[in-house]
Hints:
heterodimer, A: alpha+beta, Elongation Factor Tu (Ef-tu), domain 3, 4-stranded antiparallel β-sheet, 6 helices, B: alpha+beta, SH3 type barrels, 5-stranded antiparallel β-sheet, about 15% strand, globular, Ribosomal_bL19_sf (chain B), structural constituent of ribosome (chain B), Translation_prot_SH3-like_sf (chain B)
Amino acid sequence: MLRTVICDLARLRLSGSTASSAAVVVTQVREKGHLSRPRLRNPYWFIRPQRSQTDDLVTGENRSFIKEVIHDTYGVPALIKGVQTYEQRQLIKTPQASATEDAQPWTPNVRRCGLIARKIGQYPLWLKNGERVRTTLLQVVDNHVVKYIPPEEYRPAQQPDVKHLHRYGCLVVGAESTNPALLTKEYCGLFKDSGVMPTKNLARFIVSPQAALAPGTPLNVGHFRVGDFVDVRGKTVDHGFQGVVKRHGFKGMPASHGVTKTHRRPGNIGGGGEKGRVWPGTKMPGHMGNRWRIIKGLRIWRVNTKYNVMWVQGSSVPGSTNGLVYIYDTILPLRRPQLAPPFPTLYDNDAEEQLPEDIWHEQVHNFNEESITYKPE
Amino acid sequence: MNVNARFLTNRIAQQCAYKRIVTFSTKPTEQSAAAAVPQQQQQQQHDAVAPPVRKPIVPAHYRFVYPEFLPDPKVEWRNSIREKLERLDMLNRRRQIELPEFYVGSILAVTSSDPHAAGKTSRFVGICIHRERCGLRARFILRNVIDHQGIEIVYELYDPTIQKVEVLRLEKRLDDSLFYLRDALPEFSTFDEHMEAETLEEGTPVPINELKVVLRPRPWLERWERQNLRGVANIDQYLKDKHRKSSEKVQKPWEKYDLMKQYRATIPEEEQKEIFAEVHTELHTLELQRKRNKRKRTFVKPKHLA
Lengths: 377, 306
């Protein structure tokens, strides 16, 4: 900074001197003159959502009036698919009609929208051959499309790791509607065009232009089918600063037999001589957890459409119970869908009602069926 | 002031004593048993004064008969929708198979499908030495000695490969888990494979078998002297002074007064009522059905003699 100021001053003096004499003196600037720090520009929806809670001295009448206005614009509070939210009748139903008109067919390389979900717990299911599989339950919580940014306009400052990003647009999806009186004006403004009730959580999904969805479209668990594979992204549990035994699974040293003061220490961290330093990447104590992680290629074993819950293979979905996760179509080449999934999504009116309440994978044992028996050979 | 405060805390402790009930213990604690009597009296008085309010009648023993319907009390792991879905699955499974009431110390026979067994089914008789976990993960351990070899099998209660669970002898023991049978003489965990089911009269409380087990000499798998076992006869015979001293050191006699600990380790009674009110009717109809079937089974048509 200081350097640039000095350079500018020098240039000023130069320009002054050029006026007096024709001789041109060029001062060489070897450096760029400023630090090449990338400018952190967050997406426009990164706004502080929570209003500072001040005592507004609003009378009881006015408070009830505010409530009335909210209920008039967004509908009364309702329990929809097991999630406490609001009846959003104001959402226009036309997008589905328009979508069916110029709907483009699904192709294997197309990127679809994802879902925002909560990890609500884990319990086992059994396959029809008697094998036990551990599953994690993910509940899709009241998702609505907030905005679609077409590829021409989508210029993110922080480039996501997606090849040919210029071909893709961006869908902003909100989850869990909340009382707008608790939120800042700017944050509520994000939802103004779509007519969606302000939500607690927002996420962006990079999608192909064919997979674009109209603002206000609700997204449900029917977006994925049973048997599909998904990637789940979440923030891992924060363990804080941890030693080497917990963080990297080192064995530690014996508790007794003359061992003093080194029971959980890493031991040697490097050699001598030519390699007389600590090599980069050496496993050492440090902060553990609280990182974004994607677990890829999880099979959906079962879906409950009544509560918007999907049972997903495995018990290592990142994050704690009741934590937010994001579900995507898998990027693993051998597990991508062969047949067309609901595209661009499963709209409420066409097939949602026809789906049964519980959908089981063909290999999974339904608890309503009889006990598993093996046929004698 | 000091006296007053102590008095108050005593009162609170007394009040809490019959609100919080240990879910995993099969026997009601002394406190709750003592508290149950005055509560009933109070209720009677209450009934005399005000007209009786109709409530869903959930029997109080359900938390001991169906302990796995109560979720894990760890707050961070709880989610109402997950628990509801899990209960629905459990009920669906219970419609398919009879999962009877049993306790640690009861003798069970489990018939399960086994791809490697001859005839594709296997039946195992043994004493239930441990019962743990909740929801669909509920499981129990059966132990028996077969051909002088101790055998233990872990069964998951809701595993669909289980075909039949029979209770051959319904009883409790003095302790909540019987892992010490592993270090006891083998005759204490030997049960006849062809044992016949003993029937209990309806309405009788589950008997407590006060059998005291004889331990083998050391070495043991666990330090039994530290666990305040009631069902062991001869533990003193193997203890030296150093064992007594060390076991005294690890005792925590104050824990029974730790209300917060108890609160965290259990589901509050109000929530238990909510949960059982949800599943009660279903479980009750299943019980009735089972009784009807049993009666049918016991009635054997006299054979026509030629």
